[in-house]
Amino acid sequence: MPVHVVVGAQWGDEGKGRIVDFLSTRADIAARYGGGANAGHTVRVGEKTYKLRIVPSGAVAGCEACIIGPGTVIHPETFLAEIEKLAMAGVDTSRIWISDLAHLIMPYHIALERSRETARGADALGTTGNGIGPAYGDRVARTGIRAGDLREPARCKAIIAAKSAELGSAGIAFDPAEVWRGLEALSATLLAHVCDTVSMINVALDHGKTVLAEGAQGSMLDVGLGTYPYVTSSVTVAGGAGAGLGFGPTRIASVIGVSKAYATRVGSGPFPTEDLGEAGERLRAIGREVGVVTGRARRCGWLDLVGLRYAVAVNGITELALTKLDVLDDFDEIQVGVGYDGDAALSVPLQIAAGAKPRFQSLPGWKEPTVNTRTFGDLPAHARSYVEFVERACGIPVTLISVGPERSQIVERGARIPVQAAGA
To answer: Given this model, what pLDDT does residue 308 score?
Structure first.
């Protein structure tokens, strides 16, 4: 059976975690292909809420294996704390695997990132300060430590010593022996979760298993295709799934893009449809828009169809999951960004960077609660019209509609992943 990829179609925080959790009940393997502990995913099942940072959201649904792939970067302490918390909540963490090719985030990566952000002053990028960028930088510079390298202490100590000399000249001093002792103390526990996940995932696919590949952040934060430099340090689009997990593109059957029914952004950077007035405050309050990792209030605004169509194109999105439709239940009118005034010859990220002004279209609100709705036909007429408006604008179907944070609060309209997992 094939791979189904789930990607964020905005600036992250779209609700990918709850969509992956919902779909993971139909998959055999859930696999995270990029990012690090800077990507918070929230899953709510009944009265329990799980806040995940690096572990795939499928862990809660009980997939037979959850993979953190070669394209990710792992902070050992954060990972171990997360699986300990999951185990205490009754989740079987023995199924959670880290690729031996995934790179590790070291204490000096965190120090370097925070130093750089401080030096930028008013031009700070708004990173999470978790060392993600410097860890990816060392990966590209071929000076990083992979999870599998923990089996070779001499190699790790040599890399740490070389990094100490390099960063010392930049004013970031640390004791390499102390850093190694901290890593060594965790290595045995970490290595219990480290294996060759590339073989694992390809053997599973060869045996007819269904894989759900989970992205981090959103398309507009992709390091190459996003609103650079206000982006993350990894590939967030669907094209990164194969490279980040180790399978070929012919394995992919569908790409599910996740978008809120409105828009949010955390941190710095342009946000064309941001609403700085009363409506933005209402969206933030009703939607409880606070970052899972940072605790920062999210900037809020209206759905940006230019950006969404761009995400559909660069990801090859085949269907959309529209989340938080219920947040719009009490609005008399709903604004939608339908176009930009600016230089259309530029790519969308450069149009946004150049200060593109959005053109809005006003749609009627429905002023009825949707939280108990489970079929599309039972949604209020104007809510159905809103979803259909998005479908027409993007040229693809909206197959999943979230009307609340709990796993069951989803309206389904023919998602392409079979109801039963391939291995069931």
So the answer is: 98
pTM here is 0.92
Query: How far is residue 137 CA from its own chain's centroid?
Result: 20
Sign of the C-alpha dihedral computed for residues 410, 411, 417 and 422 taken in this order: positive
CB 287 within 8 A of CB 327: yes
Name residue 385's beta-bridge partners. Answer: none
Report the distance separating Cα 56 and Cα 160, nearest Å: 29
Active-site residue set? 13, 41
Do residues 107 and 182 lie in contact, with contact meaning Cβ atoms separated by under 8 Å? yes
Rounded to an integer, what is the distance from CA 73 to the centroid of its chain? 13
DSSP β-ladder status, 211-214 and 29-32: parallel
Burial class (CB in 10 A: 0-12, 13-18, 19+), 70: buried
Give 406's DSSP letter.
B
Q: How far apart are CA 232 and CA 223, in angstroms?
A: 6
Which residue type occupies 363?
L
> What value, to the nearest 5°, has the Cα angle with vertex 420 and ends 417 and 423?
105
Q: Is the dihedral of CA 276, 280, 285, 289 positive or negative?
A: negative
| pLDDT tens, position by position, 299-331 | 999 999 999 999 999 999 999 999 999 999 999
Q: Which parts of 4-131 fold into alpha helices (H)?
A: 16-24, 58-61, 76-88, 107-120
- Between the two ends of the chain, the Cα-to-Cα distance in Å is 12
Which comes out higher in pLDDT, residue 419 or 44? 44
Helix, coil or strand: residue 238: coil
221 membership: H or E segment, kind and range: none
Neighbouring C-beta atoms of residue 359, cutoff 10 Å: 13
Alpha helices in 321-417 (DSSP H): 348-353, 381-394
Q: How many CB atoms lie within 10 A of CB 64?
A: 15
